[in-house]
Amino acid sequence: MLSEAEARAAVLEKVAPLPKEEAPLIDSLGRFAARNSRAVRSLPAFDNSAMDGYAVQAASCQSGARLRVVGEQPAGADRGLSIGAGEAVRIFTGAPLPAGADAVIMQEDVTREGETIVANSGVEEGEFLRHRGSDLAEGQMILHAGEPITPGIVSLLASQGMATTEVHARPRVAIVSTGDELARAGDSPRPGQIFESNSMMLHALALAAGAEIQLVEHAPDDFDRLVEILRRGLTHDVLIVTGGVSVGDRDFVKAALRQLGVEIALWRVAIKPGKPFVFGRSDRCAVFGLPGNPVSTFVTFLKLVRPALRKMAGASEKHFGLRQVPAKLGCALENDGDRPHYFRGRLEQGFFSMSGRQESHALFGLSRANALLRVDPGVRLTMNASVAVELWD
Ligand code: AMP
Ligand code: MG
C-alpha cells in the first residue's frame, strides 16, 4: 500500500497542464494564469484628487486664508488647468490635479463665498492627493503564470484595459457513480436502497476545484453496463468513478477499466478514510476510482484528485494542495489505527473541534465540517495542542 505522498506524486507525474487559451476576464475567474503579465499602465495613471474639494498650494492655505477660485476640474477630461499661490481650482474625486497644486482641501473644510473660498482648517502638502504610480508602477509584475485568477486579479487586469487573459483550459470531467443499492433523486427507493449522493458531492467538489463537469452517470453493478458507461467517461480529460473499487464480489470497476485499456498505476492508499483508491490512465483520460463511502470519497477527492485537477488547470505547485492554517485543538484526539487519519471538524475562532461521527459513512458530520486535521498513527493530541488544519472552502 502506498503512502499518501507516494500516491499523490504518482498521480501528479501522470497528468500535465492542459492547453492555453485566451478567455474573457470574467471567464478566467477561478482558473490559472498561463503567462506572466506586467503592468502596462501605472496606477494611479496620473496625479489626481482623492476627495471632492479644492486643489491648492498648501503653503497659501492655512486656516482662515482666502483663496480665489480660478476654474473647475471635473473627473474625466483633463482641462490642463494650473494655479499659483492664493488660488484654488474646484476639483472632484479622481480628477487630474492642476499644475502647481500640491494639496486638496476637502469641500467640508471650506466656506464658499462667490468666487472665493475661506479655508476653515489648514492643509498639508500632499494631502488628499493620489500620485501617479504610487500604487503600481508601469512594468511591474502583476500576475505570475500558475497563479489563481481571483476577483482582485480580474479587477487589476481590467484596470490595465485588458478584456481577455491567457489561462489554461478547465479540466473536462466525467463522474460515474456505481451500485445497485443506489436510487436516484425522483425515484422511490426500494427496501434496502439509499439515495445516491456521491455524484452530487463530486460534482460540487470538482466545480469548486475549477473543473467543468460534462457527464454524470450512474452504473449498476453489472460488468457490461459498467464498461459501456465508463467508455463514455473515458472521452473526457478526467473520469472520476465512485464505489465498486474495493474487494467485494461486485466491485467491478478495476476490471472494467482494464478491459477498456486503462493502465492502472496504483491501487490502495494508506489514509483513513479512503484506503480503496484507483488511479490509472488511458491515452487521453486520467481515471480516478474513489471509495463508495461518502466521507472516503470526499477525503480522497481533496487529497488525491484535486491536486491533479489543479495541475491540469495550470496551477503552480504551491496551489496544488489545500490551504493550511494553524489552529488549537478544541478537544483531545488520538489515532490508534495504522494509517494516517483525517479527522473532519470545524475551525472556529482558531479552534478545531470534530464535527459529528468520524466513520466513513457519516455524512451529516461532514456537512458541518470546514477543515481536515491529519493525525499520524500512534499520535495522541491533547486539548489546546497546536496543529495545522486544512481548509477546502
Ligand atoms: P462500495 O465501495 O461500492 O462497496 O460502497 C461502499 C459504501 O458506500 C456502501 O455502503 C455504498 O452503499 C456506499 N456508496 C457507494 N456509492 C455511493 C454513492 N454514489 N452515494 C452514496 N453512497 C454510496
Ligand atoms: Mg458498490
Give a written overview of the molecule.
With 393 residues, the protein is an alpha+beta fold. It folds into four domains: 167 residues, Molybdenum Cofactor Biosythetic Enzyme, Chain A, CATH 3.40.980.10; 56 residues, Molybdopterin biosynthesis moea protein, domain 2 (Alpha-Beta Complex), CATH 3.90.105.10; 83 residues, Molybdopterin biosynthesis moeA protein, domain 3; 69 residues, Beta-clip (Beta Barrel), CATH 2.40.340.10. The protein has eight helices and 27 strands. The site of magnesium ion has 5 residues, from loops.
Note the total helix count.
Answer: 8
The CATH superfamily of the largest domain appears as MoaB/Mog-like domain
Based on CA atoms alone, the radius of gyration comes out at 30 Å
Class based on secondary structure composition and strand pairing:
alpha+beta
The low-confidence runs, each spanning 5 or more residues with pLDDT under 50, are: none
CATH architecture heading of the largest domain: 3-Layer(aba) Sandwich
Lay out the secondary structure.
Elements: H1 4-13, E1 20-24, H2 25-28, E2 37-38, E3 48-49, E4 53-56, E5 66-73, E6 87-91, E7 103-106, E8 110-113, E9 116-119, E10 129-130, E11 141-143, H3 151-159, E12 164-168, E13 172-178, E14 182-183, E15 194-195, H4 198-208, E16 212-219, H5 223-233, E17 238-242, H6 253-259, E18 263-267, E19 278-281, E20 286-290, H7 294-312, E21 323-329, E22 333-334, E23 341-348, E24 351-354, H8 363-368, E25 371-375, E26 380-381, E27 386-391
Parallel strand pairs: 5-6, 13-16, 13-17, 14-15, 17-20, 21-24
Antiparallel strand pairs: 1-12, 2-11, 3-10, 4-6, 4-7, 5-9, 8-9, 18-19, 19-20, 21-27, 22-26, 23-24, 23-25, 25-27
Helix pairs in contact: 1-7, 4-7, 5-6
The protein binds adenosine monophosphate and magnesium ion.
Magnesium ion (MG) binds next to loops.
